[in-house]
Amino acid sequence: MGVSQQPPRSNRGHRERNGDHRQYRDSHDDRRSSSDRSSSRPPYYPRDADSPPTRAREVPRGEHHESKCTNICSRRGIVLICAVLTNSLVLICVVAAQMVTSGMSSMGGLGGFDINSNFNLQGTELQKVRELDMQYSQMRAPGIYGGIAFSLTLGVISLLFVVAGSKPPHLMSRKLLYGALVFQAVGAVAYVVAVGLYLHFIIRVNSTDVCQQRQRLYARNGYTWMNCDVSGADAAVALFGLITAILYTAGTVLTIQTIRRVKRYQQERKRREAEKQQQGRGRPQRTPLRAETTSV
Fold first, then answer.
1. In whole angstroms, what is the distance from residue 12 CA to residue 8 CA?
2. How far apart are CA 90 and CA 248, in angstroms?
3. Cβ neighbours, 10 Å, residue 246
4. Is the Cβ–Cβ distance between 77 and 159 less than 8 Å?
5. Which residues contact 207 (CB under 8 A, 6 or more apart)?
6. C-alpha distances in angstroms, 263 versus 73, 239, 242, 268, 291?
7. 221: left (phi > 0), else alpha (psi -120 to 50), else beta?
8. DSSP string spanning 168-198?
9. What is the pLDDT averaged over residues 236-256?
10. Cα–Cα distances in Å, from 240 out to 61, 143, 171, 206, 252?
11. Residue 248, number of CB atoms within 10 A of its CB
12. What is the arithmetic mean of pLDDT over 114-135?
């Protein structure tokens, strides 16, 4: 009886050993699978996730500055900036024309240059030239003062409209857009009229006896460039004035297009708001339910 009971014990031991080997293999396989799963996972970056929000916060600032620049440097803004520059050129040419044609005289604070050392005039002839130069400068005075006031006023107003155009058109007041439209339309017509009046005034002054006597005295001493023709500076005033009128005309057309776009944008916005209101009226029961659930 004792001998017959030993084989089962040995079989039980082999079974227990085999079971231990199987458990060891299963645990080893589980470790391998877990290591494979961990190796297939993407790497974890603990603190790098905080950087994108800071970048996202910095983006709107750049967009804000860029939008200001794009609004000022739009086609309408560029035309107004060019109009400011041409107005300043008209102003410079008006002053230069007075200084060139003033001769030996000196007119107030805006007068010409003293060229006594360059002229071979003496005695009564020198006194006569000075008197004629003074009379001629006084006759041209309305042209220079009017040109300075006109070009300076339109240049400053144009600059103000450039600064006011830093906002998008749909955020600007409608009065400002219509004001820019009226200003540029009136400025274009006014510049054409002003150039015509300026040239007519200069030609009429140059056709007087004072200018003719002055021309003869200067030509007698070999200075033929001091004549009664329209000077190059006066021609430059007319040229830049006409360029400014063209710029104001182009600005008027661009402003009309901008006003139309703003009207379309506002109509589209009103239409979308009306559609949203209609959709909200079509579902009146859902909104109170949401409000009650959120209040709870």
1. 6
2. 15
3. 16
4. no
5. 228
6. 22, 37, 32, 9, 36
7. alpha
8. -GGGS-HHHHHHHHHHHHHHHHHHHHHHHHH
9. 96
10. 40, 16, 34, 21, 18
11. 25
12. 71
End-to-end Cα, the chain, rounded Å: 80
- The mean predicted confidence, pLDDT, of the chain is 75
Q: Please tell me the predicted confidence (pLDDT) of residue 266.
A: 82
Segment among 74-83, 99-108, 201-210 with least mean pLDDT? 99-108
Question: Closest Cα partner for 161 from 246, 238, 241, 87?
Answer: 87
In a 3-state reduction of DSSP, which class is residue 28? helix
* 261-281 tens-digit pLDDT: 888 888 888 888 878 887 877
CA distance 102 to 96: 10
pLDDT band (50, 70, 90) for residue 168: confident
- Which amino acid is residue 147, in one-letter code? G
| Amino acid at position 51, single letter | S
CB-side neighbour CA atoms (13 Å) of 233: 16
User: Which range has the worst mean pLDDT, 137-141, 204-208, 285-289?
Assistant: 285-289
| Torsional class of 38: left (φ above 0), alpha (ψ -120 to 50), beta (otherwise) | alpha
Helices marked H in the chain: 6-40, 51-72, 75-101, 123-164, 174-206, 209-220, 232-282, 286-295
